[in-house]
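Archive transcription. Copying these from loose printouts into the bound notebook so they stop getting lost. Printout 1 of 2:
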Amino acid sequence: MNSTGISIPSLMEATVALLRRGVNDSDRMREQLAREFRLGRDDQDWRRFVNHHAWALVRLQGQGRIRKIAPGRYELAVGDDATPPILDGQPLPRWARVMVSVAKQKNASRWSREPFEEGDLRALWKAGHGRCMLTGLPFKETAVGTGKARRPFAPSLDRIETNQPYSQRNCRLVLQAVNFALNAFGDDVFLAIAEGAIGFREHGLAHA
């Protein structure tokens, strides 16, 4: 703790509070935290404050409470509807264990080769930074509607070439809703609709 009373634990909790409000840029977080703790750049404790906040971000990531989504940008990793993340050095969460097991069973019954392992799923999670590899959206367990498939934002394992087995080379982690669209119509149709929706929202009928 420094002379202003700012400790790493206090900065951790204040950082989580900012992320709940949607502030995810580390520079913006520091600016708001400095105002909250009444600290200016000319104060003698400024450098220590910056260092403490850096350590707060490191510890929060280590605890799995936040995750880095881009250089200098963070988001909450755990929430009421967040999909439990795959963390280095930690056992796979239940959703991931089920996914690996199902992929193994399907490979064994249809192709009798190329097992899909835990390491393959971890590599896919890292490659997509814990987000859908086609939309960049975070995975969530939010239930929508009353149908059988009620979690459109949950992670789903998509095979790029449907006639090939589950493998790290042939798979990507995508939203469940995206996987449904890909299975029914393929990449080209999904991307055409997604691009059309973005263009329409930005430019209206003039874009059509």
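Printout 2 of 2:
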Amino acid sequence: MNWSRWLALAASPSFALMALVSLVQGADPATLLCSAAGRAPFGGMTAMYALMSLFHAPVWIRLIGARSEAEPR
């Protein structure tokens, strides 16, 4: 596997981790109160990182699909 594939595989988990960190760092009492009221508890950078993680997820989906096709049943 070449370096570009490793880099592509690292993108989605990295963005997911950054989304989690930015969500936790922004967890002030007002944000927690809004999330209890039914509003989204995240926005801004957290939402951007979560979307970037989703955009990079197809690389993982292709990898898992290729492995399941290669395994005998």
